Amino acid sequence: MHGTPLAIALLVAVLAPLAGAIVSGLFLRNAPKKAVSLVSVSAVFVSFVAAAIAYVGLDEGSLRFEGYRWFTIPLGGGQGVPIEFALSMDALSGMMAVMVAGIATLIHLFSVGYMAEEESYARYFAYLNLFTFAMQLLVLAANLPLLFVGWEGVGLCSYLLIGFWHQNLAYEAAARKAFIVNRVGDVAVLVGMFLVASLTGTLDFEALSQRAGVFDVPAFGVLGMTAATAVSLLFFWGATAKSAQIPLYVWLPDAMAGPTPVSALIHAATMVTSGVYLSARMSPIFVKSSAALTVILLVGAATALLAGLVALTQDRMKKVLAFSTVSQLGFMFAAVGVGAFSAAMFHVFTHAFFKALLFLGAGSVMHAVHAHGDAELDRLGGLRKALPVTSLTFLVGALSLAGVPLLAGFFSKEQILHALFGAAGNAQLAAGGVAVSIPSWAATTAIVFLALAALSTAFYSLKLYLRTFTGEPRHDAEPHEGGLEMKLPLVLLAVGAVLAGYLWLPAEGLERFAESLRAVVRDALPVEAHGGALPMIVGLGALAIGAGLAVALYKGKAEDPLPAKLGAFYRAAYQNFGVDALYDRLFVRPVAAISRFVRSFDFETIDGLFVGIPSGLATVGSKAVRQLQGSTVHSHALGMVVGLVLVFGYFGYPRLEVTIRHEGARTVLEVPPSFGYSYRVDFGGDGTYETGDFRADLTALAVPPSAAKKDRVVLLVHREPLDSEPVEVWLDEHPRELGERELGADFIPPGARGALPIMAWIEDGAVKLRTNLPGDEPEERELRPGQSHRIGAARLVATGVAFARVEVKNAFGHVTVQELEFPFRGRARTAVRGGSRRIP
Amino acid sequence: MFSAYLPLFLMVAVAIVVALVLWSAATFLGPKNPTPEKLTPYESGADSTGTQGVRPSVKFYVAAILFVIFDVEAVFLYPWASVFRELGWLGLAEMLTFLVVLGVTLAYAWKKGALEWVK
Amino acid sequence: MTALFALAPLVLLLVGGLLIMLVDAFAKERVEVSALVSTLLGASFVVAAGSLLADPNPSGLPAEITRYLAVDATGYFTDVVLTVAALIATLAAGSYLREHELERPEIYLLLLLSTFGAMVLARAADLIVLFIGLETMSLAVYGMIAMRRNNARSIEAATKYFLLGSFAAAIFLFGAALLYGATGGTSIAAIRDAIRGGHAEPALVMLGLVFTLAGFAFKVAAAPFHGWAPDAYEGAMIPVTGFMSVVVKAAAFASLLRVFTGVFGDPLLMHPTTGWPTLVAALALLSMLVGNLGALGQKNIKRILAFSGIAHAGYVLVGFASLHAVPEDATAAILYYFLAYAGGTGLALASLVAFGSKGLEAVDVDDLVGLGKRHPLLALPMAIAMLSLLGIPPTAGFFAKLFLFQAAAQAGGIFAWLALAGVALSVVSGFYYLRIVVALYASEPAEGAVVARPMRSGYVLLAMVFGSALVVKLGVMPGLYLDLALEAGRGLFH
User: Fold this and answer.
1) pLDDT for the residue A609
2) Which of A47, A586, A662, A666 is deepest in the core (most CB within 10 A)?
């Protein structure tokens, strides 16, 4: 292990919370609560101080702590990707680490008051510490596998904390839903990681950003995607789970079952933003794929709007805030989608303050009115007098979320809108020399979505404040403010919610914050890309309309008038537009049904199939056997026999896979060699086998001219001037147009797109062509096998069609036959015409 | 290659045919004059009592298994003894190992009471 | 003599086992057989690990030995896996039998002999020796399951396992006989050479492959030869379940590895589309499906682990299916998987032993409810085991799966899809593994429900500490072990 003293601070920042978790989880079970509070709060505070020291000491570039060689991913042939246990901090991870530890400290502090009555106090703080550890590991990891450990760790802690109050089963179900949804995302991250490792030979972030050039290679085998697109979409898929985007956002609202400070820390400020963090980390790859960015942009914007609409209709504080979080994450991904990674991270930063503040405010309210699980807006109201601190700080948070000018939320939201307008304005974004283009319709759609989402944000933030703190009380509790340990975090977070945005201003001494971040992430947009004053007009307009509507509707009202006004739309949105029910029907129930089926298969189906139906069999067998039969001995044995028959059946008939390969002028027929296989081949279909009898040593055979079928020719189109693999065009006697697909775009004269003037058909064992190019005289031409003709850039060659009947016999004497037709010269993968059949 | 086993199959077939022929010849050709005494199972002269399904003591099985083990041991000893000189010291060591293992297990079984009829 | 030293892990067990039998029979005082047997297994483990590190491929051994028993790095590696698993099972049994007043010295001796048989099976270089190892191992296991004589479930499980096991043994033996008939040899090398040289009758070789594969598939509980596993696991005592699920499975897999890379390692037989890899891939997929989906509806922890074992057999078979493309990587991944699986499953069952006390055996998931809150430290190993079996980093199971699926991904084609299916199905496995973690740490027992009272016993604690250390070490610093597995895998190919 080595590293500068400053780098040791990274290790401390990661390990201090782990130490706290171990001490309070294992040794302070029965200790006084004060001891637990002291240990766990100070553990997180130490992490904060260490991260802050490292961040402040971070000059240009980055800090790195080298641990040991963790393991090596084998790549075959003695190659391998070495993975170190190493931590690193640059402007991006530094900002995250300080923010995570800072907010975690405040939330730990708040929890001291909030959870004071809790029996499993030590367990709660142990989980919370453990979460902070995993989150710091995620942020400070120097490579993808280590980040993945943190990624899994935060998921696990989130799972444990959602299910923390488990008097009711729904909480446990919510916990499991969260975990499983996240695992669905993890699969993608893992696959993406494999792909990156095999393409670049490294998983270290630093090395990766240097080797991102590998991804400039355009073609890649997976579904016609480029490597950059495939990798970006896989990581984004993982991010949709962790950061609750369409279609995997369903777990986050349910996750509110956990204690409120947990929602504030994990499900608002830190863990859910790790998807955005991963995207920013991978930005060197992301910016190389227009397709992936477009997908991300649309998914992010759609999520922002959908969740914003659902949030309008929710009638519980935490549900509103949960959907609001999903919506704000949508904003961040929309920014990612136009390559504005720094803007996205900026929103992560400000959002952490005001959303944590709002959640803690909600917690303070619930604490005050003794609401458990969640606070229904219909049973709140008029709390301003009783809870002055909470009320004021909550208002600050709500206004910041709504995007009121000069508060933190305003700055980051404006940045995102600016970026979007920039993208809509100039479709070509410059990204490190590679041009990325977002379709302008996509950017425009996203702007419309986000504007509507911003409108609903303003509406529900104000609604939340008005219905909670103003008007007549609709509850019968005697609310009281929490202690200092609860007020202090609220005040500090409120200060953050006001001031965090100013870090972005290009003022003296502050510019480093934004500048150094931009130096790390690869923004696709130039820093000063603006859409003029338009973004601000849109943002302020949305704020004014939304806030105005909210004040008009809710000022001094006891009832919520929204359900009546919106009718069916309200009900649909309230039910999350039926997505939960849909998923239940699509995924949960089928899996449950399959598992029931498999279970019954063991005990019933085999009995039913093989014993129940031929009931005569059931009477055979002695009493002893029948006793065992109840416990299915013989059905198990029967299962084994069935398995044996299946295994045997696999080898019963030979498999035949013929490949036609072309070597210069020669065409070669290849068959896979296999144990006990012997082949014979009849070319031309004349009934005589050119190979003689079945031959075991046959693997490749040159196709003789005699294999040609009379009256069959096929047209080969060479698109490129030299040595290209030709495209085969199979023709019959009906004249057929040769389109762009066959001839290639180069050939098509300008203006002739669409209707093509070349007809081709077969006549008397020759290809007939009729060309009718614009400006030329119609011309008819005949191509005999071997002859060629040039049209524009394309060279057309007529060639004979060979016929072969291949028979393969396996060790048991069973034969499979395949009859094929293929041109004498063509592409390596020739279309094989004709299926195979088995002959006993 | 199956033809190599043809004599074997032939021998089995002949054995089955001969057995069937002899048995059916006795059944069909022999004089039948049944009396109650003749129909009772042969029990070495003693009167048969009780039903067929008597549960023999489990001790029979222990004794039988021990017998089989040492019977097999003896079977192994014969061929070893016939090539004793060719195998040399290695052969002696191997056979001694075999005997020691069996001896220890016998001692164990004995001491644990496997050979006592009533315990 | 060098041969005796080279085979010290086996010789120790045999000689020590006989001595313990004599001591137990003739000693005046009651002897602590469990302590003796665990010490012996520990010694064998140390010797095997030492040989693996010091001189994994000893040379100059007499052909009389190596013709029957392979003395190579692979053998030492499997020795290590088998002794580790047997040691955990013995320690767990030491606590379990005493607590539930079932203490009988025979069970430890059977355990010892069965381990010896397993080690012979894993090293067998000759089909006859292989069969002797297989039967030595299996017969002792039948006896161990039936040891709880007045428990109907145990007898049922033993009878079933015995009947089906004999059936499978006969199937295997038939396959071996066909191979002998086809090639005129019984040693793996002789059969391999005959097949390579084209002196073998192809139809008989193919039939031999089918039958030996079916016999092995039974022993490793791969679908569709898995039917016996849930019942047998449920009926056996917990430590015996642990022994069966790891030792029997790992030994059979190790032997399968030798037979399929040796006898059936011919490139023609291993052709990815026409040879056995596709068939093994199908078995793998079926096992992963049946195991993971079957476990979902189970309440009994032993049954859950039985289905989980079927699923893990499927994962290992994924590695077998990729042997044709990346033989060394796939072998290393398989061997590493044994170690991770032995740690995870052994740890889970040892924990299950620790969670019960006299008259209050932990059986269902519901029995574990709230245990983690009352005894956080004691419940931790079970949670670690579940996370490892599920494959969450940084535990042993994560790297085990990573290396296996990596190998399959390198093989490409349908094998890459198989790896994807494996990843997806291991997501499904989250449902049942996590149910146990939830029960431990995040649930409250219902009013008036009986709460499990953990036993206080040194043996099982030792097993849990040992198992946890293994699982965590394999996850945090897997490098050394993977290197050893790679080294061990190379032993098969030179």
Assistant:
1) 38
2) A47
Residue that has been written with the tokens 């859409």 in this structure: A531
Residue B101 belongs to some domain of the structure: yes
Backbone φ and ψ for A689, nearest 5 degrees, come out as -90, 120
State pLDDT tens for residues A660-674. Answer: 887 777 888 888 888
The answer to whether residue B47 is domain-embedded is yes
Structure tokens at A529: 């890309």
Q: What is the model's pLDDT at position A752?
A: 56
Note the residue count of chain C. Answer: 494
Chain C neighbours, 3+ Cβ pairs < 8 A: A, B
CB contact under 8 A, B108 and C22: yes
Cβ neighbours of B104 (radius 10 Å): 16
pLDDT at A143 over 70: yes
- Inter-CA distances, A350 with A367, A410, A539, A637, B110, Å: 26, 9, 17, 65, 83
Considering only CB atoms, C18 lies closest to which of B101, B111, B112, namely B101
Tokens of C400: 């085990």
Q: Which of A595, A609, A812, A814 to mutate to test the interface with C (most CBs of C within 10 A)?
A: A595
Three-state secondary-structure class, residue A412: helix
Residue A482 in this model has a pLDDT that exceeds 90: no
| pLDDT band at C18; cut points 50, 70, 90 | very high
Whether the ω angle into residue A785 lies within 30 degrees of 0, i.e. cis, is no
CB A403 within 8 A of CB A454: yes
Asked if residue A699 lies in contact with residue C271, where contact means CB atoms within 8 angstroms, the answer is: no
CB–CB of C393 and A25 under 8 A?
no
Higher local confidence (pLDDT), A655 or A515: A655
| Contact state of A635 with C227 under an 8 Å Cβ cutoff | yes
Which DSSP category does A141 fall into?
A: B
Task: Name the residue range of residue B52's domain.
Answer: 2-111
Q: Which residue has the higher pLDDT, A831 or B52?
A: B52
Q: CA neighbours within 13 Å on the CB side: how many for A20? A: 33
| Average pLDDT, integer, range C204-210 | 92
Contact B111 C25 (CB under 8 A): yes
Residue type for A605, please? T
Query: What's the total number of domains in chain B?
Result: 1
Q: Do C444 and A167 touch (CB under 8 A)?
A: yes
Contact present, A326 and A302 (Cβ < 8 Å): no
Are chains A and B in touch, 3+ Cβ pairs below 8 Å? no
Q: What are the start-end ranges of the H helices in A115-168?
A: 121-140, 144-162
Quickly tell me which residue has 């302020």 as its tokens: A540
C346: nearest Cα among C226, C229, C244: C244
Question: What are the sequence ranges of the domains in chain C?
Answer: 3-493
Quote the tokens at residue A533: 């004053």
Answer yes or no: are the C-beta atoms of A34 and A112 closer than 8 Å. Answer: no
Q: Is A556 left (phi over 0), alpha (psi -120 to 50) or beta?
A: left
Q: What is the DSSP letter of A267?
A: I
Residue A599 confidence (pLDDT) above 70: no
Closest CA to C311 of C413, C213, C407, C427: C427
- Tell me if the bond preceding A259 is cis, omega within 30° of 0: no
**Distance in angstroms (rounded) separating the CA atoms of residues A231 and A188:** 9
For helices C276-296 and C202-219, what crossing angle results, to 10°?
20
pTM reported for the whole predicted model:
0.76
Residue B43: CATH number of its domain: 1.20.58.1610
Q: What is the DSSP string of A191-212?
A: HHHHHHHHHHS--BHHHHHHGG
SS3 of residue A744 by DSSP? coil
A827 pLDDT above the threshold of 60: no
Q: Does some domain include residue B107?
A: yes
DSSP state of A500: G
Helices (H), C322-363: 327-355
Identify which of C86, C80, C32 has the alpha carbon closest to the alpha carbon of residue C53.
C80
